[in-house]
Sequence to fold (287 residues):
Amino acid sequence: MAKNTILAFRSDIRGFMKAGYSLPATAQQVANYLAEMHTKGRKPATISRHASSLGTWHVYMQLPSPTLSLEVKGVLKGIHRKSDGRQRQAPALRLHHLRQLLKALDLDAPRDLRDASMFCLCFYGAFRASEVVALYREDIEWRDGGIVITLRHSKTNQSGRIEQKMLPRNPAGGRCCPVTLLEAWLAWSGIRRGALYRSIDQADRVGAGRMHPVTFGNLLKKALQRANLTAEKFTTHSFRAGFITEAHLRGKSDQQIKRISGHRDQKTFERYIRMADDMHDPGNDIF
Fold:
């Protein structure tokens, strides 16, 4: 299992116990717990993950899994039917949004410089938040015209297969160049090895450990407020969706885009493309 999967598994089990249930659990207990989660407004995907974690625990303990029962399957089916089976897609943070976001940051302030570098790298590399905060200085290699980033683990790559992404330098430099911003952040922080993005204390001292994805999300929320972009309901995944949308609408081929995004599942990739097409060139704009 990947590290994040293990963390999620442990969190799910703790949540079940904190809700007043015990392990091993009966099918009725699991079904009640999942129904309670639905009542509290938890997403269907989250509820399904909790059910999977509880099933995994029982299998690991060599016990019959209550999640295979008709009661639990019936509850999950009902939850997904009520939700209409659709996952809420993160809205695409387009290039003009990125410029507005970065413009609201003070690049002379250490925290803003770090955040600007993270945001820009996340967009141009089509990274997930968990991937950006997991980067190390040793993963960055400078080349003529840009940088090569080595990604050792990702959501779709749990085997440790080496993936590399090339990020070009913006000839104009400035706020929307991931390479220029990264160089500025490294120059200020003095980071030579270890975690690429870290905390900064009140005395402007750089921490030692890497940043948590939740912290990344909180920093983005604050930056969106400063940029007057909260109404757009962007999330950390919006950078990835925004890059794919922007690249597609600018005529980049699917192969070129997937080389950056790392998509291997065509159906998932086409969902991004379909949304971009529907937004940019809808079939019903025949007024």
Q: What stands out?
A: The longest helix spans residues 44-60. The longest strand covers residues 146-151.
